Amino acid sequence: MGFLDEIKRRRTFGIVSHPDAGKTTLTEKLLLFGGAIRVAGAVKSNKIKKGATSDFMEIERQRGISVATSVMGFEYRDYKVNILDTPGHQDFQEDTFRTLTAVDSVIIVIDAAKGVEAQTEKLMNVCRMRKTPVIVFINKMDRPTQDSFELLDEIENQLQIKTRPLSWPINNGPDFKGVYNIYNKSLRLFEANVQEINPGIDFEDVNSPELEQYIGDDADVLREELELVEGVYPEFDHQEYLKGNLAPVFFGSALYSFGVQELLDAFVEIAPSPRPSMTEEREVKPEENEFSGFIFKIHANIDPNHRSRIAFVKICSGKFERNKPYKHIRSGKAIRISSPTAFMASQREIVDEAYPGDIIGVPDSGNLVIGDSITSGEDIHFKGLPSFSPEMFRYIENADPMKSKQLAKGVDQLMDEGVAQLFTNQFNGRKIIGTVGQLQFEVIEYRLLHEYGAKCRFENLPMHKACWIECNNPKTLSEFKKRKHQKMAVDKRGRDVFMADSSFILQMAQDEFKDIKFHFTSEF
Ligand code: G4P
Questions:
Q1: Which residues form the Tr-type G domain (predicted)?
Q2: Burial of 113 (0-12, 13-18, 19+ CB in 10 A)
Q3: Quick check: is 380 in a domain?
Q4: Total count of domains within the chain
Q5: Is 108 near ligand 1, meaning CB less than 6 Å away?
Q6: Among the listed ranges 63-67, 83-87, 187-191, which one has the minimum average pLDDT value?
Q7: Atom 17 of ligand 1 has which residue's CA nearest to it?
């Protein structure tokens, strides 16, 4: 198969949802239909099995939230599908946002009873900013739900995106009968507790009296509702979807494997193949000859027996080849990747080559950081990996004087992973950890202990916000730093950060020092 065909057949996407809407269940069912796993339950039981050997996963198991982001690739029909999993918990949203920079499209899972939830809105905002095409999967139709038209209205209003149903539910809850697939005109009847997937029934014409044989009196309701759908929603416009303006909607029940096949079949056909990526210098197209990619995630200690880290590289252009000399742009050094891994479902294997859209895992001993670019061509710097102003702060102290080295190393590596941000107060030299959520502190404490044998103690630091400051005028900058010397810190890369006690103080500083730019997100 040619290089261009390899690119065209790739579908790299993320599944996102508010916690509990069914992201994990849907991911698992997609793997099942994709033939990547044999039995349902494999994803979850795999998680638990890992939890027994990896302490990090133990947290995930205990709390029932997905902390880690992982990649699962599989072949389906003529397509190579790469699913990038994201943590659902909001305290790890930075990780999710970074992962969304590596996907070409997104499936948003919504709980049909709960509708659009807080986390769904935030995630959609990121997709909108990046113009990522989204498909909506309305899940849990086997339970009593909101009215389908109202749900679609809610999605349009709250997620600010036009919708177009491509399947339509026949009733819901205990009376749920199935879905009519508008996309390929077939009927699929719902059966709870089936292991085998029943094939759909081709059903071109819903006005045929045969429909009654399958769904009885619900046939009339379905006909009416479909007529309404066709009346209200313009025909599905593929281009509008690809531009991120229109979300096709599917209904189903992930738990009962229902509506998932429809979703997957339509997904591979309509979802985009790898899209161009932005760098500081120019747009990079996947079909370019030179290889390029960037690191969107680092994961340390996946295997507690090997103290190595894995950097997740998204390939943006050209063909990746094992052992070829590439350039690591930040250090300017050559890098030869001798054992890159591909993530095929739950297995990992060494690969000799990979294509745009693929994610490879690169073993690393501490040279790579999130946001780094690697190329075989000219120097380019991939953009768009955000780092947000943290809003919770704590001093971190060593609680075991015998383990200060371990603590320093652990903190260093966890920050490289992007678990939280580290600042050093310039006035007193104390280390400050900044996060967006409480849970991150717990993860840090737990991982320091279990992965590095280090004990830490946190001391609360009531603070409003940390923001990066920038100024073209060195005199103003030094004046500001002098005045605020007790509140000045540097981040891990040595950039100036102002720690504002309150929104009032921040506002005063902004009013007084108009030449200074206060940044609330920093791109790596
Ligand atoms: P998440 O990753 O988005 O957080 O959600 P997850 O898939 O873990 O699903 C959350 C809960 O919702 C799970 O139940 C799951 O079984 C259930 N669920 C998912 N899809 C459906 C569906 O289509 N219909 C119904 N009725 N339930 C669904 P749980 O009791 O929290 O976990 P478990 O013990 O069953 O695994």
A1: 8-275
A2: middle
A3: no
A4: 3
A5: no
A6: 63-67
A7: 22
